[in-house]
Amino acid sequence: MSTATPARLRTEIMTPDIRSRDRKFFTSYAYLAVAAVFLGFARTYYLRSYTGAPPLSTLVHLHAIVFSVWMVLFAVQTSLVAAKRVALHRSLGIGSIVLAVAILALGLITGVVGARDGWTGPQTPRDPIGGLSFLTVPIGDMVLFAAFFSMALY
Questions:
Q1: For the chain, domain boundaries
Q2: For residues 43 and 92, what is the distance between their CA atoms, to the nearest angstrom?
């Protein structure tokens, strides 16, 4: 009786046509995600000098740079798998641990500073704790990010 690993089962079940569609889907998704990030932050970050957006702190710039690099890495990683360069994909994955730790730290620090500085706007009767309720987003994001990244490495 042979013992089949999940990866082996997936390889045996998936036809070349399905694998090709998967590669195209995930690569397209990655490039769309990069475009969505650019478009979503174009006015307030990437094209700030053209839109007259207010100045940003050094922390926000550092956060934006690290997270932008992460998005580019995401697109590169999916492209490597699509090009069947899995060994390089895995090497970059191991090397991205430092970047992932920076993302976790910067995400949490930027969230706490944002909550402290009231980035969510003035307090209202519906939101008596003001910026503290804002923390649920970055903390939740960082918990999910850590979980997903850990699973990807595993």
A1: 14-83, 96-154
A2: 31
Q: Which tens digit of pLDDT belongs to each residue from 93-145?
A: 888 999 999 999 999 999 888 888 776 544 444 555 666 777 888 899 999 99
**pTM beyond cutoff 0.70:** yes
Place of tokens 């595993």: 154
Single-letter amino acid, residue 108: L
φ, ψ of residue 83 to 5 degrees: the values are -85, 5
Helical H segments across the chain, by residue range: 6-13, 16-41, 48-51, 58-82, 86-95, 97-116, 136-153
Tell me the pLDDT tens digit for each residue of 61-89: 999 999 999 999 999 999 999 998 999 99
Q: What token pair was written down for 45?
A: 């970050």
